Amino acid sequence: WQTDKASDYQDIYYHSAEHIAKITINRPEVRNAFRPQTVRELIDAFHRAHLDPDIGVIILTGAGELAFCSGGDQRIRGEAGYQDDIGVEHLNVLELQRQIRTLPKPVVAMVAGYAIGGGHVLHLICDLTIAADNARFGQTGPKVGSFDGGFGAGLMARTVGLKKAKEIWFLCRQYDAAEALAMGLVNTVVPLAELETETVAWCRQMNRLSPTALRVLKSSFNADTDGLAGIQELAGNATALFYTTAEGQEGRNAFLEKRAPDFQQFPRRP
Ligand code: 1HA
User: Fold this and answer.
1) Which has the higher per-residue pLDDT, 140 or 88?
2) Is 71 annotated as ligand-binding?
3) Measured by CB atoms within 10 angstroms of the end CB, which terminus of the chain is less buried, N or C?
Protein backbone atom coordinates (compact mmCIF):
# COMPACT_ATOMS: atom_id res chain seq x y z
CA TRP A 1 0.00 0.00 0.00
CA GLN A 2 1.09 3.56 -0.69
CA THR A 3 0.45 6.12 2.03
CA ASP A 4 -1.18 9.30 0.86
CA LYS A 5 1.36 12.00 1.61
CA ALA A 6 -0.90 14.91 0.68
CA SER A 7 -3.25 14.25 3.56
CA ASP A 8 -2.72 15.22 7.15
CA TYR A 9 -5.14 12.98 8.99
CA GLN A 10 -5.10 12.43 12.76
CA ASP A 11 -7.72 9.71 13.16
CA ILE A 12 -7.54 7.76 9.90
CA TYR A 13 -5.13 6.41 7.29
CA TYR A 14 -5.53 6.68 3.54
CA HIS A 15 -3.67 4.13 1.45
CA SER A 16 -3.92 3.16 -2.19
CA ALA A 17 -2.62 0.44 -4.49
CA GLU A 18 -3.77 -1.19 -7.71
CA HIS A 19 -6.75 1.15 -8.19
CA ILE A 20 -7.97 0.37 -4.66
CA ALA A 21 -8.21 2.97 -1.88
CA LYS A 22 -8.06 1.72 1.71
CA ILE A 23 -9.48 3.99 4.39
CA THR A 24 -8.67 2.90 7.96
CA ILE A 25 -10.16 4.27 11.17
CA ASN A 26 -7.15 4.49 13.46
CA ARG A 27 -8.33 4.81 17.06
CA PRO A 28 -7.66 1.27 18.32
CA GLU A 29 -7.49 2.42 21.97
CA VAL A 30 -11.28 2.97 21.83
CA ARG A 31 -12.04 0.07 19.46
CA ASN A 32 -12.01 2.58 16.57
CA ALA A 33 -14.90 4.65 17.94
CA PHE A 34 -15.40 7.82 15.92
CA ARG A 35 -15.52 11.45 17.06
CA PRO A 36 -16.39 14.53 14.95
CA GLN A 37 -12.76 14.81 13.79
CA THR A 38 -12.81 11.17 12.62
CA VAL A 39 -16.00 11.65 10.67
CA ARG A 40 -14.71 14.87 9.11
CA GLU A 41 -11.58 13.07 7.96
CA LEU A 42 -13.54 10.06 6.67
CA ILE A 43 -15.76 12.35 4.59
CA ASP A 44 -12.63 13.99 3.17
CA ALA A 45 -11.01 10.63 2.40
CA PHE A 46 -14.10 9.21 0.70
CA HIS A 47 -14.37 12.41 -1.32
CA ARG A 48 -10.76 11.98 -2.40
CA ALA A 49 -11.31 8.36 -3.47
CA HIS A 50 -14.55 9.33 -5.21
CA LEU A 51 -12.87 12.01 -7.32
CA ASP A 52 -9.69 10.05 -8.10
CA PRO A 53 -10.11 8.51 -11.58
CA ASP A 54 -7.38 6.02 -10.71
CA ILE A 55 -9.51 4.46 -7.93
CA GLY A 56 -12.15 1.86 -8.79
CA VAL A 57 -13.01 0.32 -5.41
CA ILE A 58 -12.75 1.55 -1.80
CA ILE A 59 -12.11 -0.51 1.33
CA LEU A 60 -13.27 0.78 4.73
CA THR A 61 -11.64 -0.87 7.74
CA GLY A 62 -10.41 -0.37 11.29
CA ALA A 63 -6.88 -0.47 12.66
CA GLY A 64 -5.84 -3.63 14.49
CA GLU A 65 -7.55 -6.97 14.82
CA LEU A 66 -9.93 -6.14 17.67
CA ALA A 67 -12.40 -3.83 15.99
CA PHE A 68 -13.74 -2.45 12.74
CA CYS A 69 -15.53 0.36 14.59
CA SER A 70 -17.43 0.69 17.89
CA GLY A 71 -19.59 3.66 16.87
CA GLY A 72 -19.72 7.09 18.46
CA ASP A 73 -17.07 7.89 21.06
CA GLN A 74 -19.12 7.87 24.26
CA ARG A 75 -16.47 9.82 26.18
CA ILE A 76 -17.22 13.02 24.28
CA ARG A 77 -20.98 12.64 24.14
CA GLY A 78 -22.40 15.84 25.60
CA GLU A 79 -25.92 16.99 26.38
CA ALA A 80 -27.02 17.05 22.77
CA GLY A 81 -24.53 15.06 20.76
CA TYR A 82 -20.85 14.39 20.21
CA GLN A 83 -18.60 17.36 21.02
CA ASP A 84 -15.71 18.50 18.87
CA ASP A 85 -12.54 20.17 20.21
CA ILE A 86 -14.31 23.48 20.81
CA GLY A 87 -17.39 21.89 22.36
CA VAL A 88 -19.74 22.15 19.38
CA GLU A 89 -21.99 19.10 19.22
CA HIS A 90 -22.15 17.67 15.74
CA LEU A 91 -21.07 14.30 14.41
CA ASN A 92 -22.15 14.24 10.77
CA VAL A 93 -22.01 10.46 10.65
CA LEU A 94 -25.37 10.44 8.86
CA GLU A 95 -23.78 12.57 6.13
CA LEU A 96 -20.96 10.01 5.95
CA GLN A 97 -23.53 7.21 5.58
CA ARG A 98 -25.19 9.02 2.66
CA GLN A 99 -21.81 9.68 1.08
CA ILE A 100 -20.73 6.01 1.19
CA ARG A 101 -24.11 5.00 -0.18
CA THR A 102 -24.16 7.41 -3.09
CA LEU A 103 -20.56 7.59 -4.23
CA PRO A 104 -20.44 5.75 -7.53
CA LYS A 105 -17.79 3.15 -6.73
CA PRO A 106 -18.16 -0.07 -4.72
CA VAL A 107 -17.26 0.30 -1.03
CA VAL A 108 -16.20 -2.87 0.81
CA ALA A 109 -16.20 -3.14 4.62
CA MET A 110 -13.27 -5.26 5.80
CA VAL A 111 -14.25 -6.31 9.31
CA ALA A 112 -12.01 -7.84 11.97
CA GLY A 113 -13.33 -7.83 15.52
CA TYR A 114 -16.23 -5.64 16.62
CA ALA A 115 -18.58 -3.79 14.31
CA ILE A 116 -20.85 -2.34 16.97
CA GLY A 117 -23.40 0.49 17.28
CA GLY A 118 -22.81 3.25 14.75
CA GLY A 119 -19.84 1.17 13.56
CA HIS A 120 -22.21 -1.64 12.73
CA VAL A 121 -24.34 0.72 10.65
CA LEU A 122 -21.23 1.82 8.76
CA HIS A 123 -20.48 -1.75 7.63
CA LEU A 124 -24.17 -2.18 6.77
CA ILE A 125 -24.04 0.91 4.55
CA CYS A 126 -21.02 -0.43 2.64
CA ASP A 127 -21.87 -2.36 -0.54
CA LEU A 128 -20.14 -5.57 0.54
CA THR A 129 -18.75 -6.88 3.83
CA ILE A 130 -15.87 -9.31 4.16
CA ALA A 131 -15.67 -10.57 7.75
CA ALA A 132 -12.83 -12.23 9.59
CA ASP A 133 -13.76 -15.24 11.70
CA ASN A 134 -13.26 -13.14 14.86
CA ALA A 135 -15.81 -10.50 13.77
CA ARG A 136 -18.70 -9.65 16.07
CA PHE A 137 -21.71 -7.62 15.09
CA GLY A 138 -24.49 -5.82 16.93
CA GLN A 139 -26.36 -2.65 17.84
CA THR A 140 -26.20 -1.11 21.31
CA GLY A 141 -28.40 1.98 20.94
CA PRO A 142 -31.20 1.05 23.36
CA LYS A 143 -28.51 0.09 25.91
CA VAL A 144 -26.52 3.33 25.70
CA GLY A 145 -29.38 5.73 24.98
CA SER A 146 -29.29 6.09 21.23
CA PHE A 147 -30.87 4.75 18.04
CA ASP A 148 -30.42 5.06 14.30
CA GLY A 149 -33.90 5.02 12.84
CA GLY A 150 -32.72 5.93 9.35
CA PHE A 151 -30.63 3.54 7.30
CA GLY A 152 -29.68 1.88 10.59
CA ALA A 153 -33.21 0.49 10.91
CA GLY A 154 -34.58 0.59 7.36
CA LEU A 155 -31.57 -0.77 5.53
CA MET A 156 -31.05 -3.37 8.25
CA ALA A 157 -34.60 -4.64 7.68
CA ARG A 158 -34.00 -4.80 3.92
CA THR A 159 -30.75 -6.67 4.51
CA VAL A 160 -31.69 -9.30 7.11
CA GLY A 161 -35.50 -9.11 7.12
CA LEU A 162 -37.83 -7.30 9.49
CA LYS A 163 -37.98 -9.86 12.32
CA LYS A 164 -34.21 -10.22 12.52
CA ALA A 165 -33.67 -6.45 12.26
CA LYS A 166 -36.04 -5.88 15.17
CA GLU A 167 -34.28 -8.58 17.17
CA ILE A 168 -30.91 -6.91 16.53
CA TRP A 169 -32.20 -3.52 17.71
CA PHE A 170 -34.62 -4.60 20.46
CA LEU A 171 -32.32 -7.08 22.24
CA CYS A 172 -28.86 -5.55 21.58
CA ARG A 173 -27.25 -8.98 21.32
CA GLN A 174 -23.93 -9.66 19.65
CA TYR A 175 -23.65 -12.05 16.69
CA ASP A 176 -20.54 -13.91 15.59
CA ALA A 177 -19.32 -14.09 12.01
CA ALA A 178 -21.08 -17.37 11.23
CA GLU A 179 -24.42 -16.01 12.50
CA ALA A 180 -23.90 -12.82 10.49
CA LEU A 181 -23.24 -14.86 7.35
CA ALA A 182 -26.33 -17.00 7.94
CA MET A 183 -28.57 -13.91 8.13
CA GLY A 184 -27.09 -12.25 5.04
CA LEU A 185 -25.41 -9.46 7.00
CA VAL A 186 -21.99 -10.22 5.46
CA ASN A 187 -20.87 -11.67 2.13
CA THR A 188 -18.23 -14.10 3.33
CA VAL A 189 -16.21 -15.12 6.38
CA VAL A 190 -12.50 -15.86 6.15
CA PRO A 191 -9.76 -16.68 8.66
CA LEU A 192 -8.41 -13.49 10.23
CA ALA A 193 -4.97 -14.03 8.67
CA GLU A 194 -6.53 -14.05 5.19
CA LEU A 195 -8.84 -11.08 5.64
CA GLU A 196 -6.90 -8.51 3.64
CA THR A 197 -5.80 -10.92 0.90
CA GLU A 198 -9.37 -12.05 0.34
CA THR A 199 -10.75 -8.50 0.44
CA VAL A 200 -8.18 -7.34 -2.11
CA ALA A 201 -9.05 -10.35 -4.33
CA TRP A 202 -12.71 -9.26 -4.33
CA CYS A 203 -11.65 -5.67 -5.15
CA ARG A 204 -9.40 -6.82 -8.00
CA GLN A 205 -12.26 -8.84 -9.45
CA MET A 206 -14.56 -5.79 -9.41
CA ASN A 207 -11.81 -3.63 -10.90
CA ARG A 208 -11.67 -5.97 -13.92
CA LEU A 209 -15.35 -5.29 -14.66
CA SER A 210 -17.01 -2.35 -16.42
CA PRO A 211 -16.85 0.70 -14.11
CA THR A 212 -19.93 2.20 -15.76
CA ALA A 213 -21.95 -0.99 -15.26
CA LEU A 214 -20.95 -1.12 -11.58
CA ARG A 215 -21.69 2.59 -11.18
CA VAL A 216 -25.19 2.40 -12.64
CA LEU A 217 -25.92 -0.83 -10.73
CA LYS A 218 -24.93 0.76 -7.43
CA SER A 219 -27.37 3.62 -8.01
CA SER A 220 -30.02 1.12 -9.14
CA PHE A 221 -29.81 -0.66 -5.79
CA ASN A 222 -30.44 2.68 -4.05
CA ALA A 223 -33.18 3.94 -6.35
CA ASP A 224 -36.32 2.51 -4.73
CA THR A 225 -35.10 2.87 -1.14
CA ASP A 226 -34.02 6.47 -1.60
CA GLY A 227 -37.13 7.74 -3.37
CA LEU A 228 -36.64 10.83 -5.50
CA ALA A 229 -33.03 11.20 -4.31
CA GLY A 230 -32.42 7.63 -5.52
CA ILE A 231 -34.01 8.37 -8.88
CA GLN A 232 -31.88 11.53 -9.08
CA GLU A 233 -28.77 9.42 -8.62
CA LEU A 234 -29.82 6.88 -11.24
CA ALA A 235 -30.90 9.60 -13.67
CA GLY A 236 -27.61 11.45 -13.14
CA ASN A 237 -25.91 8.45 -14.70
CA ALA A 238 -28.30 8.59 -17.67
CA THR A 239 -27.45 12.28 -18.16
CA ALA A 240 -23.72 11.58 -17.91
CA LEU A 241 -24.02 8.86 -20.56
CA PHE A 242 -26.22 11.08 -22.77
CA TYR A 243 -23.52 13.79 -22.68
CA THR A 244 -21.12 11.37 -24.37
CA THR A 245 -23.43 10.90 -27.41
CA ALA A 246 -23.47 12.91 -30.65
CA GLU A 247 -27.13 13.70 -29.98
CA GLY A 248 -26.36 15.19 -26.57
CA GLN A 249 -23.41 17.11 -27.97
CA GLU A 250 -25.46 18.54 -30.86
CA GLY A 251 -27.43 20.61 -28.32
CA ARG A 252 -24.28 22.05 -26.79
CA ASN A 253 -22.63 22.66 -30.17
CA ALA A 254 -25.69 24.43 -31.57
CA PHE A 255 -25.82 26.72 -28.54
CA LEU A 256 -22.12 27.58 -28.77
CA GLU A 257 -22.32 28.06 -32.57
CA LYS A 258 -25.44 30.26 -32.19
CA ARG A 259 -27.54 28.13 -34.57
CA ALA A 260 -30.68 26.02 -34.29
CA PRO A 261 -29.94 22.45 -33.18
CA ASP A 262 -30.39 19.74 -35.82
CA PHE A 263 -31.87 16.78 -33.96
CA GLN A 264 -33.47 15.38 -37.14
CA GLN A 265 -30.25 13.51 -37.91
CA PHE A 266 -30.75 11.23 -34.90
CA PRO A 267 -32.90 8.10 -35.07
CA ARG A 268 -36.08 7.71 -33.03
CA ARG A 269 -35.31 4.21 -31.91
CA PRO A 270 -38.17 1.92 -30.94
O1 1HA B 1 -26.36 5.31 17.65
C2 1HA B 1 -25.56 6.24 17.08
C3 1HA B 1 -26.11 7.24 16.27
C4 1HA B 1 -27.48 7.30 16.00
C5 1HA B 1 -27.99 8.32 15.18
C6 1HA B 1 -27.14 9.27 14.67
C7 1HA B 1 -25.78 9.21 14.92
C8 1HA B 1 -25.27 8.20 15.72
C9 1HA B 1 -23.92 8.10 15.99
C10 1HA B 1 -23.42 7.11 16.78
C11 1HA B 1 -24.23 6.18 17.34
C12 1HA B 1 -23.63 5.13 18.17
O13 1HA B 1 -22.60 4.62 17.80
S14 1HA B 1 -24.36 4.62 19.66
C15 1HA B 1 -23.41 3.24 20.10
C16 1HA B 1 -22.06 3.58 20.71
N17 1HA B 1 -21.20 2.47 20.87
C18 1HA B 1 -21.36 1.50 21.80
O19 1HA B 1 -22.28 1.48 22.58
C20 1HA B 1 -20.28 0.46 21.87
C21 1HA B 1 -19.54 0.58 23.19
N22 1HA B 1 -18.45 -0.39 23.28
C23 1HA B 1 -18.64 -1.69 23.55
O24 1HA B 1 -19.75 -2.19 23.62
C25 1HA B 1 -17.42 -2.51 23.77
O26 1HA B 1 -16.35 -1.65 24.11
C27 1HA B 1 -16.99 -3.35 22.53
C28 1HA B 1 -18.02 -4.48 22.35
C29 1HA B 1 -16.89 -2.52 21.26
C30 1HA B 1 -15.60 -3.95 22.79
O31 1HA B 1 -15.60 -4.69 23.99
P32 1HA B 1 -14.19 -5.17 24.61
O33 1HA B 1 -13.37 -5.84 23.57
O34 1HA B 1 -14.55 -5.95 25.85
O35 1HA B 1 -13.39 -3.86 24.99
P36 1HA B 1 -13.70 -2.77 26.10
O37 1HA B 1 -12.85 -3.04 27.30
O38 1HA B 1 -15.16 -2.60 26.33
O39 1HA B 1 -13.19 -1.46 25.35
C40 1HA B 1 -11.79 -1.17 25.23
C41 1HA B 1 -11.65 0.32 25.48
O42 1HA B 1 -12.29 1.02 24.42
C43 1HA B 1 -12.30 0.77 26.76
O44 1HA B 1 -11.58 1.87 27.25
P45 1HA B 1 -10.60 1.72 28.53
O46 1HA B 1 -11.43 1.07 29.61
O47 1HA B 1 -9.49 0.82 28.04
O48 1HA B 1 -10.15 3.11 28.82
C49 1HA B 1 -13.64 1.26 26.28
O50 1HA B 1 -14.24 2.20 27.12
C51 1HA B 1 -13.27 1.91 24.95
N52 1HA B 1 -14.41 1.99 24.04
C53 1HA B 1 -14.97 0.99 23.36
N54 1HA B 1 -15.99 1.45 22.63
C55 1HA B 1 -16.07 2.76 22.86
C56 1HA B 1 -15.04 3.11 23.77
N57 1HA B 1 -14.87 4.36 24.19
C58 1HA B 1 -15.68 5.30 23.72
N59 1HA B 1 -16.68 5.05 22.85
C60 1HA B 1 -16.91 3.80 22.41
N61 1HA B 1 -17.89 3.58 21.52
Assistant:
1) 140
2) yes
3) C
For the Cβ of 138 lying below 6 angstroms from any atom of ligand 1, the answer is no
The question of ipTM being above 0.90 is answered as yes
92 lines ligand 1 (CB under 6 A): no
Look at residue 123 in the predicted model and tell me its pLDDT: 98
Q: Of 185, 191, 163, 200, nearest to 115 (Cα)?
A: 185
Give burial (CB, 10 Å; 0-12/13-18/19+) of 32: buried
Query: For residue 176, which amino acid is it?
Result: D
Eight-class DSSP state of 126: S
> Which atom of ligand 1 has the smallest separation from the CA of 149?
5
The conformation of residue 73, written as its DSSP 8-state character, comes to -
What is the DSSP track for 23-35? EEE--GGGTT-B-
Sign of the dihedral defined by the CA atoms of residues 138, 20, 189, 28, in that order: negative
Q: Which residues contact 243 (CB under 8 A, 6 or more apart)?
A: 249
d(C-alpha 197, C-alpha 66), whole Å: 18
Residue from 70, 139, 151, 156 to probe ligand 1 pocket by mutation (most atoms less than 8 Å from CB): 70
Ligand 1 site, residue 113, Cβ cutoff 6 A: no
Neighbouring residues of 194: CB distance < 8 A, sequence distance ≥ 6 = none
Ligand 1 in contact with 116 (CB < 6 A)? yes
Question: Whole-model pTM?
Answer: 0.97
Res 244 pLDDT > 70 = yes
Which of 45, 47, 44, 27 lies closest to 35 in space, CA to CA? 27
* Mode of pairing for the β-strands spanning 128-132 and 188-190: parallel
